[in-house]
DNA sequence: TTGCAAAGCGGAACCGTGTTCCGTATCTTT
DNA sequence: AAAGATACGGAACACGGTTCCGCTTTGCAA
């Protein structure tokens, strides 16, 4: 994942990398994840070349900015499983958490679906980190008999991600609710 | 919606418009809905200016190309309601139909979510035409007591559309199934 | 048939974005 | 202080959408 690991020899390089991370975080909030690279560079007070040296692809930058939150989301999985009354309840809560994360990051979900720019890496990162967590929740809920076992974690993750697309720019659309409905669709009937 | 209504004075203008529609349809199949405008113009054997004169925005072109199929989808709603055993079954079938339409049009769903180019018009067209149909199905199924009545047609439409994003480029992802699950989530429990 | 105004055409040119590349500046080490 | 390594900046290029305007075609009228 590039040299995002903050370990460089030169002081200016480290300073610039941090400046870029800060600038990117700020710009992402106001202008969305797809903000022009030039804007981020400008905000950080560095040239365009510098941004590309530190983060070879846009995805690397986005990942670096959101790494902590993705990590938190991943760690919440097992935690919820331990603290919830049933595995299904844990799955519900985790889905909520994940949706919140996607929706509050202006355009993140949309960006990840955008075939255009090299966002496949981003997609891959999310999958790598969160798929196992989702799978664990899904399996637990299936094992407890609360849900059907015929949907794999990959599809559920993609489905949740997709439902979040554009959620932040449309007040008539409530992604969290639709995701809840989707998860509810997994539930065995009769209950 | 522009002069898409094939009524022009000059013969060459009408010919070119048809050539553009044919070319666009062909290119959409092979290169997706987001194919470069230049490619479509080239395929039709006309200049770039011509394409913009006939279809002021990309969306107008896309709409013109798919108008028939959208129409068919709209008309299928009432028909299914009449021919299905229950309103809920009709809703299920219609969702399937709609998903098929979106998924088989290379990138249509994705394009509609793409904030970038003027695809809002496209979005608006789909909504105008299909929302009432969806609403009717939803209301019927709610009235029959098969589903909960607390999700409006707009959100369901958006949800279905979103679930179809990227479905054609990922063999591990089955949009139809997820949409079925979402619809199932509407169902009242207990059965 | 011919003339001519209206309608339509083509594509060069412009804009905004991502990305590359290399001469120059800065840092670190000795 | 000098030299080598490292990083920087931003001009330049690629690409796709869109505009604009001089030129061509068409159809009507004389």
TrEMBL record, chains A, B:
<dbReference type="InterPro" id="IPR009057">
    <property type="entry name" value="Homeodomain-like_sf"/>
</dbReference>
<feature type="DNA-binding region" description="H-T-H motif">
    <location>
        <begin position="36"/>
        <end position="55"/>
    </location>
</feature>
<dbReference type="Pfam" id="PF21597">
    <property type="entry name" value="TetR_C_43"/>
</dbReference>
<keyword id="KW-0805">Transcription regulation</keyword>
<keyword id="KW-0238">DNA-binding</keyword>
<dbReference type="InterPro" id="IPR050109">
    <property type="entry name" value="HTH-type_TetR-like_transc_reg"/>
</dbReference>
<dbReference type="InterPro" id="IPR036271">
    <property type="entry name" value="Tet_transcr_reg_TetR-rel_C_sf"/>
</dbReference>
<dbReference type="InterPro" id="IPR001647">
    <property type="entry name" value="HTH_TetR"/>
</dbReference>
<dbReference type="Pfam" id="PF00440">
    <property type="entry name" value="TetR_N"/>
</dbReference>
<protein>
    <submittedName>
        <fullName>AcrR family transcriptional regulator</fullName>
    </submittedName>
</protein>
<dbReference type="GO" id="GO:0003700">
    <property type="term" value="F:DNA-binding transcription factor activity"/>
</dbReference>
<feature type="domain" description="HTH tetR-type">
    <location>
        <begin position="14"/>
        <end position="73"/>
    </location>
</feature>
<keyword id="KW-0804">Transcription</keyword>
<dbReference type="GO" id="GO:0000976">
    <property type="term" value="F:transcription cis-regulatory region binding"/>
</dbReference>
<dbReference type="InterPro" id="IPR049445">
    <property type="entry name" value="TetR_SbtR-like_C"/>
</dbReference>
